[in-house]
Design brief:
The protein is mainly alpha-helical and 263 residues long. It contains 10 helices and 7 strands. The protein has helices at residues 4-12, 19-33, 38-47, 51-67, 72-79, 88-104, 164-171, 179-184, 196-216, 246-251; strands spanning 70-71, 109-113, 116-120, 175-177, 225-227, 233-235, 252-254. The chain has a 3-stranded antiparallel beta sheet. The chain has a two-stranded antiparallel sheet with strand order 4-7. A two-stranded antiparallel sheet has the order 5-6. Helix 2 (19-33) crosses helix 4 and helix 5 (72-79) packs across helix 6 (88-104). The protein is globular.
């Protein structure tokens, strides 16, 4: 799924796209068709993107570097979710290869710095990227997760893949806010605010939280869930989160409710 900023960039440059974009996309397509040793061939066959998916990946890499240069490792981490391989290492290898191709086609730059490489671009745009609400409320169901990740392996003393069925089921559950509770109880800081800085941070957080509560009040919404390397599931909610403080746990409830009666 294409992110908001990259979608905006494509719209701005739809009739004035740098030729390096097209050159990079075509070069990635050619790279995917070449003969390689068996393990690499298997990895590329598993990914198997179409031209639209390659274009989206290339544009995302370019958009990120237009905003700011990134280390090689950081840039890979920002786009691995767009590559449909089961193993995280295989996704990282594919992303690294695409970055190298974009560098060869002069869309991206690569500079040696310290003990690694920094990826950037010589291109610039006149307009500023639009602000994006990183904590926006999801009023539509999240897309089904299809890209798996290997769990902890030897580092965590177990192996296996994330249970996507469970995450997808959690993502499809409609939620709502307890409006009565919101009207009678005020959200209070869970810790002592013993400095002015802490007080200011808390006031900002509460103000932003109540703005989100008002957006969601009386509506159904969804939370997106993910798993860590041990398979533990975490809500991606920030202002509204059933795994947050006692107050946040109390105001978040199921949208589809039934009265339980004695049999």
């Amino acid at each position: 799924m294409i992110d908001h900023k990259t979608h905006w960039l494509i719209g701005e440059l739809i009739n004035d796209m740098p030729i390096e974009i097209d050159n990079s996309v075509n070069a990635v397509m050619e790279y995917l068709e070449k003969p390689y040793y068996q393990s690499k061939r298997d990895r590329l066959n598993e990914w198997n993107p179409d031209k639209g998916e390659i274009f989206e990946l290339v544009m995302t890499l370019w958009r990120i570097t237009l905003e700011d240069s990134q280390t090689y490792q950081a840039l890979i981490g920002m786009v691995v979710h767009k590559i449909d391989c089961k193993l995280e290492l295989d996704r990282a290898k594919c992303a690294a290869d695409v970055i190298g191709i974009c560098f060869n086609k002069e869309l991206l730059t690569m500079d040696r710095k310290y003990e690694g490489y920094v990826i950037g671009t010589e291109f610039t745009i006149d307009k500023e990227f639009p602000e994006v609400d990183r904590h926006q409320i999801l009023f539509d169901k999240p897309s089904l997760k299809t890209t798996n990740q290997l769990l902890g392996g030897r580092l965590k003393y177990h192996s296996g893949f994330t249970c996507l069925n469970h995450l997808n089921k959690m993502n499809q559950i409609p939620l709502s806010l307890n409006c009565e509770l919101l009207d009678i109880i005020k959200e209070e800081a869970p810790n002592v605010l013993d400095t002015e800085e802490k007080k200011e941070q808390w006031d900002t957080f509460v103000t932003e939280s109540y703005a989100k509560y008002m957006q969601a009040k009386g509506k159904e919404f969804y939370l997106e869930w993910s798993a860590d390397l041990r398979g533990r599931c975490y809500s991606q909610g920030y202002h509204i989160n059933p795994q947050g403080s006692s107050f946040k746990k109390a105001i978040c409830q199921l949208a589809k409710r039934e009265v339980l009666r004695d049999a």
